[in-house]
Write a structure and sequence with these properties.
2 domains, 6-stranded mixed β-sheet, Fumarylacetoacetase_C_sf, 5-stranded antiparallel β-sheet, Hydrolase, 9 helices, Fumarylacetoacetate hydrolase, domain 2, metal-binding, hydrolase activity
Length: 316
Amino acid sequence: MATPFALGTFSTGHEPFPGLVVEDRVADLSQALPWHPATTLAVLDRWAGALPELRELAQHAKNWLDLASLRVHAPIAPRQVFQSGANYRQHVIDLVVAHRPEDDQETEEQARARAAELMDRRAREDQPYVFVGLPSAITGPYDDVVLPSWCTQPDWELELAAVIGRPAHRVTPENALAHVAGYTIANDLTARDLVFRKDMREIGTDWLRAKNAPGFTPLGPYLVPAEFVPDPMDLRLVLKLNGETRQDESTKDMIFDVARLVSYVSQTTTLLPGDLVLTGSPAGNGLHWGRLLRDGDVMESTITGLGTQRTRCVAE
């Protein structure tokens, strides 16, 4: 039976290096592998060939480092980031209610019924909603998150992120998961006040400003290979704000599962090794609670089997 392991990026005050994690120990892959990969992305670029070597190292590696002595960075520096919106049924219903115009005559019950029908139709027509994020928004799983001065409604969005292990172009949902190397945790922060353009409603959403400030995507702590995630559609996501649970949901509530999302993105573009496909956030965001992020807030995010990230908010 294979020894469970994960991948990450670490440093000791010098250049970051890719590491293999087994419990509380880390093997420096830049030294342990004969081809000396400098980054986790380099490992993913030859994922099929690297896997047997990683399994062997998990059992027999020497010169282990103490995990507690290392700084943990985001596990992967992706080339591309694809983000799924409106993919958890209850979350979308809550957002529809929260974003109703002030002069809207629709009752909350009517708004929820309309949103539920919209989600059912999207599922029937197989139309996920995906947009592009910027790799420059990624930060480490324990780094401070700077809240920009221009953002008045910063919000949290805990998400399961699929990490691509081999190129995928026009793959079917049935074959899509064969292109996924593993999974990690993402907290896809959003400037709620900037999601919709106020200057011209017809333009629609402004994901550049709403999603991509530096540090708005804490990632990790680790990339857990798919072989150690038996069912990505049966994972529990929990986000706590200052110790209080705000999001607590199963990936079962997704409208479009991981395979359908990966397949959908691949119909338009080519997914590359290391690319991230964020799968949407469940109900329980700050907008729902009427409590947005503030200076000093601490977010703790956990997904079954993927570890925990802990980030503190700091006002710019």
